[in-house]
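Field reference: sequence -> structure
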Amino acid sequence: MENNKGFMNSIRRILFGSTGRSGQTKKARDRNESSDEEAKPVHDQQLFDPAEIKKRNEDFVRIAGQCAMGDTESMMELAEWFRSGFEPGLEAVISAYEENPDEINCEKLKKYINNLSNGSLSIDAYTFWIGRSALYGNEKAGEMIKRYAYYDTRSYSFMPRKLFSPGNRGFTDYWFSDALFQFGLVEIPWGETDCRLCTIKENGCFNFYYVSWYCPADEDGFGREMEYTDIYYDEFFKRIPARDEEEIQSGLLKIKEERERYWQVPENNAQMRKYKKSICPEA
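Structure field:
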C-alpha cells in the first residue's frame, strides 16, 4: 500500500451520488436533547481546499466500506492505512511505545501527539479502528488493546465511549460531517454542518442528523426555524435504508442479506475463515 502521508488531501469522496438529503427531515423544534458539549471543529483539522474534493483514494474507500460490513480484518487494515500516513516523528514515538509500552514511552507519545501542528486525526483513527476491531473479537486487535493501555483510552478520543455503551443514549456533536467521513465512516455524507450523532438504545443503531434547511428570524427576532435530516446507521455505521425509526427493523434485514452476500465472495470468506481459526483453532 503506498504511503498516505498526504491522505488529508485525498480521501473525501461523494458516495452514491448523494449528499444524504434524501433522509427524513424534522423541524428543529422537535430536537429537545440538551448537550453539555460544544460542537467540535472538524477534529482539529482544517477543511479541505475545494479543489481537493474531486481527488479520490480508492484504497481508503474500499477498506472503509468493508469495515461497514463488519469485517474486523479490514478494520485492522484501515488502522494500518492511517498509520502509513504518520509523519516520521510520530512513527518513531509510536514504534518506541509499541516496543516498550512503559510509562516513559507513553508520556513521550502523549506529549508528541499534543504538539502535532496539523491535528491528531491520523493517530486517533489508528487507535479507533484497532479498538473497533478488538470490540468485535479480532484476536490481534484484542492483544494490542491489552498490551497498549493508552490505545484503549485514545480510541475513544474522537467518539466518546458512551456512544458504545449498551442501554445508554449517548450523543456527540460535530460542526462538520467531514470529520466523520475522514475518520473512515464513508457512508456519512460530507459537506453538512451542525451535526449530531446519537445512539438509539433500543437496537444499538445510530441516528445521524444535520441542519438541512434554515430560516432566519425576522426583524423582530421571531420566526427562526430549522429542519434536520435524519440518516440511520447500524452498529458498524452501515447506512440503513429507512426514512424513520419505524422502518429501521426492516432496513436491518436488508443489510443482513447484503452482509450474507458479502461473505459469500470467496476472498472475503477466506479472510473470515482465517479470522475464525485464529480464535477457534478447531474451526
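Note: The mean pLDDT is 76.
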